[in-house]
What we know:
CATH superfamily of the largest domain: Creatinase/methionine aminopeptidase superfamily
Order of helices and strands: HHEEEEEHHEEEEEEEHEHHEEEEE
Largest sheet: 5 strands, antiparallel
CATH class of the largest domain: Alpha Beta
Radius of gyration: 19 Å
Shape: globular
CATH architecture of the largest domain: Alpha-Beta Complex
Number of strands: 18
Distance between the termini: 19 Å
Strand content: 25-35%
Amino acid sequence: MEKEELKNYLKAGKILGEVLKKAKKSIKPGQKLLEIAEKTEKDIISRGGAPAFPANLSKNHYAAHFTPSFEDEEVLGEKDLLTVDLGVHIDGFVADAAFTIDFSGENGKMIEASEDALEAALSVIKEGVEIRKIGKAIENAIKKKGFNPIQNLSGHGLERWTTHAVPSIPNIDNNDDRVLEDGMVIAIEPFATDGKGFVREGMQAEIFSLEEKRPVRNMDARKIISFIDETYHTLPFAERWLMDELKLSEFKRKIAMRELMQRKCINAFPILHEEEGRIVTQTETSVILNSGKLIRLV
């Protein structure tokens, strides 16, 4: 890996670690999810980084891809469990990490399951290891605690301006005999649940990413796609970010976003969730395989 690339990854990881540490101390019941998201994103920027994706705040049975809308009034409850998944990039080089907080005090064992699974994965990660062995380590650690890994969520490679690149790092032994190679940057993110271990897509989506710049008729749609391309490239963004930056009315923004979706200029990331009434915990970090060494970014 080139020196400048490694430097950017390390800087992104340092900023992310600082932001996560502050978030763990400051997030309390009674706060609006929108307030939490905006504070963490602004904290990233104030430290010299940029959000690699919108703050993901997954409550209770939600597993991924929830970020509040610009008018969200939802408040964190005294009995809620919250997973905070954040990313930081420096010139497109991404660090990605997550933790789960349980305000009820009833789900500590499940949080330990995802934490133990992460450490188990890190203990086997090295150049030349089969991907399936990482998944097996995660699966065994979670099941040892009496919970299920989420089978259709996985860790992933990180590349410049790309948060989900190859290889996919499973949370189970999926028989993938491909091996990790020197120079890979990967996010490991075990998910534990007391549910079935499969997530489904919800109807709501507040997170999007650029798929391809294509001609569009709507003037506001052209304005949005140019802004996305220049500002976020192919990294995920929140629709509420567009409101803050472009000052479009809700009506104009919705019309423009609909055309961009229909023309397949952008992708949507619907909320992913387990069965209602169940719980999902997640622990995540990012690592680099560099010249025989494993570098943990967060």
